[in-house]
Design goal:
The protein is α+β, with helices and mostly antiparallel strands. It has two domains: about 50 residues, no CATH class; about 180 residues, no CATH class. Helices cover about 25% and strands about 30% of the residues. It contains eight helices and 15 strands. The N and C termini lie far apart (about 50 Å). It comes from Dichanthelium oligosanthes.
Length: about 270
């Protein structure tokens, strides 16, 4: 009774913190102790924590003058020089690809991330892969996966940049369908655009979930002040290069932190 009383005084969070340090075989055996213990282990998916790698085995590097990324890693007997991820990609019927994001063991890659071509999610360790439904348009994609919370992954897509009226007008002129505007009207439209707050109070993204296998529109509501105006952010941005070597994101403690144009971070 004394032992039961001491255990009952511990919160579920404390017990989970203790159990996550138990080796996987013993943790699996602990599920049979009682229904409460099974729920304590299964609800936070403690066993899935043992699936995650405990160390970095290598780095994928995208090169501007190479069609495929390179793996920088220590050669071992268990990992061949040709990573299984590259073998997976040779089955996707194109020769070139780029790693655009990764999260907790899953890798997001595509033939052309900027122009919205085919996108794939794969697990290099198991050689599993899946092709995402098309999501057209200029934009960037980010991968979110936390096996400790769910076996499903999500991919978030957002437009690359706010539409510049001068660029938009130039595209229309190339298509010869632009209405004639006076220089004063063009300058007024551009100045109005430059003074627009960014990020917007309601920011529309698109999200793909492996649970539903489809893209859905998602609207994020800004909870703080804007990072600045579009004109200000344009003055404080890195030179754009159409390759996935800039402005990445990091998934940490249930939130995605995105390095946005204008050199600010959005959560």
């Amino acid at each position: 009774m004394e032992t039961d009383t001491k255990l009952s005084a511990l919160t579920d969070d404390v017990l989970a913190a203790i159990l996550c340090r138990v080796p996987a075989p013993s943790l699996a055996a602990s599920r049979s102790v009682c229904k409460a213990w099974r729920g304590l282990i299964d609800d936070p998916r403690l066993l899935l924590l043992h699936v995650l790698p405990c160390s970095v085995r290598g780095l994928f590097i995208n090169y501007l003058d190479h069609d495929m990324p390179h793996l920088f890693a220590r050669p071992t007997s268990s990992v061949p020089r040709r990573l299984s991820f590259a073998i997976v990609c040779t089955k996707l019927f194109y020769s070139g690809y780029r790693v655009t994001d990764h999260c907790n063991g899953l890798v997001l890659h595509s033939r052309d991330d900027v122009n919205g071509y085919a996108r794939y999610v794969c697990n290099p360790a198991t050689r599993w892969w899946a092709r995402l439904p098309p999501c057209s348009g200029y934009g960037r994609t980010f991968l979110v996966f936390d096996p400790a919370l769910s076996p499903h992954y999500e991919v978030l897509w957002t437009e690359r940049d706010p539409e510049n009226p001068k660029d938009n007008r130039r595209k229309k002129k190339l298509g010869q369908d632009a209405e004639a505007e006076t220089p004063e009207e063009e300058e007024g439209e551009y100045n109005s655009w430059r003074l627009t707050e960014w990020s917007p109070s309601r920011w529309t993204w698109h999200g793909f979930s492996s649970r539903t296998s489809q893209w859905e529109e998602r609207v994020f509501v800004r909870e703080c002040e804007a990072a600045g105006t579009l004109g200000y952010l344009l003055l404080h941005q890195m030179r754009y290069i159409p390759e996935p070597r800039w402005r990445y994101a990091a998934y940490w403690q249930g939130a995605l932190y995105v390095h946005c144009q204008g050199e600010y971070v959005s959560r």
